[in-house]
Amino acid sequence: MKKQMIALGTSLLLVILLIGACSTSMTDDERAIAIAIALTQTAAAPAATVPVAEATIAPATEITATVATTPTTIGNDPPALPNPPAVSDTPVAAPTTAQAAAAPTAVVQTVAPGSTEPLPITQPAAKVRTLLVAPGEPGALYALLTDQIDDNAPIANAQFLISRDFGVSWAPAPSGLPTVDADCLYNMSMDYYGATALFASTCEGLYRWSEAEPTWTLLSEQPTGLVAVVYSNADLIWATRPFTPTAPPLLRSQNGGETWETVALTHTTGVANIGVNPRDSQTGYAIVWPDEEAGSDLRRGSLFAPWQIMPTPNGNQAINTGMTIDGGTGNLYVTTRSAEGAKLWRSTNPDVGNIDNVQWGEVYAALSGVNLELLSSGWSSQEDELSIYANFTQLLDDQLVYALYRSLDSGRTWAPVEIK
After folding, report:
1. Could you tell me the CATH superfamily of domain 2-416?
2. CA distances for 167 relative to 95, 119, 189, 303, 390, angstroms
3. pTM for the whole structure
């Protein structure tokens, strides 16, 4: 089981970052993918006073980065996943006038993260696997740090931290982590409605902690990769299953995680990420592991309706496995990857009745050699804007380096967030 999970963690991201620097003859190592799993159903809130420390964060155009001296190394000879789906020749339908007016203007910065300097060191670990944004103005931030860059593998040297001042300072989260084996914790999730409740997905089952019941309680022995709680209905939960060959990759619970049912999807490679639209509890989105025969990497469905293939940006281009949903509008954000650099996209109509009419607008374009993997989103200190959190990744000396960044203006510009 553990070998299968580690095998799945190979990184297509590494392929993209190596394309510009390596020969066309690639090994399995060069096909490895490092995947950020993250999701959010945090409702957008009105702007509040900007914390003093936030006002002093330099924009992305003023980064003074330092080289990571001990970046995490990539495992030796991991098996390769299937190649990503080929880009379709069919163009995406042009947006209507109203959609075009609502779409953000794409911003390509003349100096972007990683363009003139290596990415900065932003956390005392290899990467931030998960960043959760609690409700509030600002709400608390929770960061799960790990030395394991493979998001489908168990956490290595886990740290679970909290910031109550919008990322200025960090401390150990009061919940701690459930007592499980060191190689058993997969991910942390949150119920964003009402009192904060945290979920820990482990190989031994699903645990829950809340401020009202501040001890980790085992809900069921069903292993999960991560969970998504339907907004305002804690009994309805979706979950991904840690990779198991031939097993249905998606689960659902109608009793708060005590028992689970399997959900069929028209693919065989597993689900990397899942999120629920907080404005429409009947709509969910799933990102599947790349599969040439599966078509788009993105799916849309509900607890009880069949899941459909959903168009991705730029003519069904392959997407990274991070996504986030704006709780106030229902807008869906994803990123695409290519040798020219990653791009951030927004759909203002992801839940449109005819799924073929889903439209995408480009928000931000990274420079060559830099990838962008979404983590979460939530309240912003800028009025009428969304904060978006992401891992920026870069290949330095044949090793992947991760840096945590935040955009305060719905993805148009970015600045690093240091966890200290």
Report:
1. TolB, C-terminal domain (2.120.10.30)
2. 37, 18, 19, 35, 14
3. 0.74
